[in-house]
Amino acid sequence: MIFSSFPFIFMFLPISLIGYFLIARKSSFAGAKLWLVAASLFFYGYWNWHYVPLILISCLVNFHLGVRLMPASSRSAVRRKRELVGGIVLNLAVLGFFKYTHFLVRNLEWAFSTRFDLMEILLPLAISFFTFQQIAYLVDSYRGTTRETEPVNYLLFVTFFPQLIAGPIVHHAEVIPQFEDENRRTLSWDHMSFGLYLFAIGLFKKVVIADSLSLFVGLGFDSAAPISMFEAWIATLAFTLQLYFDFSGYTDMGLGAARMFNIELPQNFLSPYKSRNIQEFWRRWHITLSRWLMTYLYIPLGGSKAGHVMTLRNLMITFVLGGLWHGAGWTFVLWGVCHGAATVVHRIFSRAGHRLPFLPAWIMTFLFAHLAWVLFRATSFSSAMRLFKAMFGLSRLYSWEMFYHVHIFDRVLYLHILGIALLAVLFLPNSRALTERLRFSRANVWIISGMLLLSFLFMNSTTPREFLYFDF
Predict the structure, then answer these.
(1) Global model pTM greater than 0.85
(2) 400 pLDDT band (50/70/90 cuts)?
(3) Nearest alpha-carbon partner for 403 in 262, 170, 230, 270
């Protein structure tokens, strides 16, 4: 069950909302929160219920450890620090087992020319996200910037279904006080309508734009056949836009669903493809991940306070590990290296006082991000090189062979969607800007209704596609 499916929209979400506000009104706020935890665990277990105990045990262990790490506890500072290190290692070990075991074993097989028998390990949904959230909670507990809360509030902080599967990576200080606030137990029609508006925007992004572009992406990336320069740029540009509309669409739907429960989640995207340099790009793309890496990795490494050379080293380490967080593969590592190197180069030039005019700065940033996404999507270096060679004219310049089996109507429709999507990311306001200027009028009601109707038509005519970041 995904956000962009009829069962979620017409069954799970309404039932969850009705149950939450009905229990909060007729019984107790604590009971309503338990209902929401149960609904979130059902949502999580819908894919594979075997991993529900994993996330529950993870929550209980980290909550208990967080209490032990708080300065108010009777433990010495040395013992608290040992327990913090142990807690971080434990969380990373669980993440590493599920996410990186196959990667490690396959590389050992290559290095030693041997073969290991390895059981199948399924990656639990959201493990990368809830691991980072809970590590942040442990670190802040040790630092003394958290306070004790009820276990149900902590469970909601981790499992709240609008942000559980693919973020945003929420900070405990952002959401736990909201789950504790009794004033949020009452149904708010303003929040409900605001949430519906944002959810409709995200749904439109996902099913009308992102899922439509997946046709070109699959044809370009998932085939070993040679392609022309024209086809390569169509396929890679389609992925650049698909990833943005898919991930930001998911975020908008999550933020919208959360607002219906009177919960405000942090923004994760602010028009990243309008950025004029790579540093600005990472202030606009996957904002909560950038914030986490900055707070809990880059700054502890020394940040920018250890001298220029060490600052550049810290940037590279942060981006390489950020690339590895996204996926267990050398293409992800290289993607992180590329972004780290670009950030280092930008910092060096900025310190020297060099600044490009707006247009060339934007073109360079967009093209760099676009080329780096090829590594992000490609399943191997050979697949990436096949596309790079075609993109730079080392293959045929022009051909439509890749699209021959696509019906002419679909071909024209999806090419138009590709063009509209590109114009939208460059010239239209982002979701936050749209919601900030939201005024409910007859025109806006028609716009929302039109987006929902068109989204439902697309959903009805195609098989629901999982969100791309579900794999991370």
Answers:
(1) yes
(2) low
(3) 230
- Total number of domains constituting the chain: 2
Query: How far apart (Å, rounded) are the C-alpha atoms in residues 53 and 60?
Result: 10
Query: Are 67 and 136 members of one domain?
Result: yes
Query: Does residue 349 sit within a domain?
Result: no
Domain interval for residue 398: 193-276+356-471
From residue 117, alpha-carbon distances to 105, 107, 114, 121, 179 in Å are 9, 14, 10, 12, 46
Q: What is the dihedral of CA 84, 86, 91, 95, to 10 degrees?
A: 140
Q: Tell me which DSSP letter residue 11 carries.
A: I
* Spatial CA neighbour of 366 closest among 275, 279, 241: 275
Place of tokens 């789950």: 179
In a domain, 65, yes or no: yes
Residues 267, 360, single domain; the answer is yes
Q: Tens digits of per-residue pLDDT, 69-104?
A: 988 767 788 899 999 999 999 999 999 999 999 899
326 given a catalytic annotation: yes
> Do 227 and 107 share a structural domain?
no
Q: What angle do CA 179, 182, 188 make, to 5 degrees?
A: 90
Are residues 385 and 434 both part of a single domain? yes
Average pLDDT score over the chain: 90
- Dihedral through CA 165, CA 168, CA 171, CA 173, nearest 10? -110
Which of these is catalytic: 171, 286, 326, 346? Answer: 326
Give start and end residues of each alpha helix (H) in 226-286. Answer: 229-260, 278-284
Whole-number Å distance between alpha carbons of 78 and 183: 40
Does 221 share its domain with 156? no
Residue with more model confidence, 443 or 186: 186
Shared domain for 400 and 435, answered yes or no, is: yes
Q: Which of 34, 39, 58 is nearest to 1 (CA)?
A: 39
DSSP annotation of 206 reads: I
The torsion of the CA quartet 240, 246, 247, 250, rounded to 10 degrees, works out to 170
**Identity of the amino acid at 302:** G
Residue among 116, 96, 97 at smallest CA distance from 108: 116
Q: CA 18, 23, 27: angle at the middle one, nearest 5?
A: 160
Residue type, 279: Q
